[in-house]
Amino acid sequence: MSDKIKKLPSHVASQIAAGEVVQRPASLVKELLDNAIDATASQIQVLIKDAGKELVQVIDNGMGMSEADAVMCWERHATSKISKTEDIFKALTMGFRGEALASIASVARVEMKTKTEQDELGTEILLEGSKIISKEKLVCETGTSIAVKNLFFNIPARRNFLKSNTIEFRHIFDEFNRSAIAYPEIQFELFQDDKKSIVYHPSSLLARINTVVGLSENDWMEINEETSILKITGYCSAPEKSKKSRGDQYFFVNNRYFKDASFNHAVMSAYEGLISSDTFPAYVLKIEIDPAMVDVNVHPTKTEVKFEDDKNCYQIIRAVVRKAIMKAFGGEQISSWFDDNKFVQDNINGSVEEAHNFKTQASETVGTGVFSALDSFKYDYQQKRNEVQRGWEQLFPKSNETTNNIFESNSTISAAKQFFQIHNQYIVTQIKRGLMLVDQQAAHERVLFEKYQTALANKPVSSQQLLFPKTIHLSVSDEIVLLEIIDDIHQLGFHINHFGKQTFVVNGLPAELHLLNEQQLIEEVIEAYKAGKQAETHKKDLIARTLAAKASIKAGTSLSADEMNSLIDDLFACAEPLKSPHGKTCVKMLSLEDIAKLFDHKI
Ligand code: ADP
Ligand code: MG
């Protein structure tokens, strides 16, 4: 049999490879903008004709190219940005594959003019089907202009696949806006069929995204957070400014736009309960991370990236967005409830021990230098936790006298905030953007639940010794269950000893439960535990949840101003302040817009 395998002619191979990079006119815009940005341009013009099918031209005032480079740049794998494998993992430039220009030249006619600062004269090069057909010296400005004409002129099938002008222009516009948001300090101009249609002047990020997204300054909540593994800056729209479409959602990593369904979910879940399910927040979140911790080389068009530590990144994103929302709603009040580092770290790890493990683990991968910040936060965190713990232990004792004494000596805390209790059930307070309603029972359940979780995870809570130890008798099956959870409930402040023969002696109970009937309390814990076990809930969570429900202040209990104050403080020191452990809503925010709507005011 005759041999069948032949090497493809190079122009065919290039066209196939080009298919990966150049899919439509918008791909040209993206690649040419990336190159202009990498050439440190401060002004970039984009000219489009016939939705890019006739012309895509990008003119920049960047560093330009020498004559030799102007010839070389059209070769496949020719790049000035990296030279060895390791560089790929350090690259902070938009490009590094040296593929874009070679691909473009294989599927279109190209004209380039370029000049460096040092050169007197520039170079003009014309290419057709990857071949340089003319090269001349000319007088021109420093910078580079690349005009790509008649895209896919030599591949009619490809050309026929292009969509309507409206759709192709939409894609171009998206690419243009992504670069514009990534680099607000650069001036971007877009000309459409010879008409200047957009000018973005150099500006702050906020001003740039206001122009691009079409919201105003007060509609955004700022994000600015640095953790041990990454830094996030940017803006998210206020919940009430959510949009009907998800178009205005931007993630950038080291200034490169990317899409990530999971990170998007992290943001959406931070807004949960605050926006209706058919609306979408606008956001621009810029992640800065060691380039070694993120792989941007997944696909040539590069909107997909892979984070080394995506689980932690997810948690951090969710935590910082939620923090921003809380701040925006509560203004100074609520923001003081969030100790910056603590809040973020708490949401990542849940406990100091885990934070420590996380640190050790992370420092193995990144090096130790950057983690000193984490050490100082650890101290704050511990202190804050102790405070919350103490506040809690002093909260809601049976005698109101003691409560007042405790808080009078600490009256600065309460001075700043004003709370009203309505129907002995809800706490109302004014916040920056409207008002906040707290369900006291759900909120207290949340506070106790997290306290018990901490107790179960590490340190036991204090217990109240009974003056007269009580003996309780249980059924055989309850005896087995109680023995199964006895170590855990010791941690929670139950001092119970097994006497054998279905008999236990209770010497002490958690402080806030000591007035309840011991036998009944323990039987209820056992019942709830059995019920939950069938649902396969985590044992410790189940115990914590049951006790929290049991011990929480109930609707109908009157609270003093100080008690309300402490409850709200403790609530916002929680990792998940918005929902009770049983999934009930603890906090509802009514924005000024919502209130205005109630009165049929136009806004
Ligand atoms: P990459 O950007 O991955 O290096 P490209 O094919 O896009 O590959 O570009 C090849 C090279 O051409 C770049 O590395 C750069 O040196 C040069 N180049 C391309 N566009 C410009 C420009 N607008 N200004 C200056 N140099 C450019
Ligand atoms: Mg490039």
Task: Please explain how this structure is put together.
The protein has 603 residues and is of the alpha+beta class. 43% of the residues lie in helices and 22% in strands. Strand 7 (187-192) and strand 8 form a beta hairpin. Helix 1 packs across helix 5 (100-107), helix 7 runs antiparallel to helix 8 (205-214) and helix 12 packs antiparallel against helix 13 (372-394). Residues 332-416 have low confidence and may be disordered. Magnesium ion binds at residues 31, 34-35, 95, 100.
Per-chain topology:
Elements: H1 10-21, H2 25-38, E1 43-49, E2 55-60, H3 67-72, H4 85-88, H5 100-107, E3 109-115, E4 122-128, E5 131-138, E6 143-149, H6 156-161, H7 165-182, E7 187-192, E8 195-200, H8 205-214, E9 220-226, E10 231-237, E11 249-253, E12 256-258, H9 261-270, E13 283-288, E14 294-295, E15 306-307, H10 310-337, H11 340-349, H12 352-366, H13 372-394, H14 400-408, H15 411-415, E16 420-422, E17 426-431, E18 434-439, H16 440-457, E19 463-473, H17 476-491, E20 495-500, E21 503-510, H18 518-534, H19 539-551, H20 561-572, E22 587-591, H21 592-598
Parallel strand pairs: 1-7, 11-13
Antiparallel strand pairs: 1-2, 2-6, 3-4, 3-6, 4-5, 7-8, 9-10, 10-13, 11-12, 14-15, 16-17, 17-18, 18-22, 19-21, 20-21
Helix pairs in contact: 1-5, 2-7, 7-8, 9-10, 10-11, 11-12, 12-13, 16-19, 16-20, 18-19
The chain binds adenosine-5'-diphosphate and magnesium ion.
Magnesium ion binds at residues 31, 34-35, 95, 100.
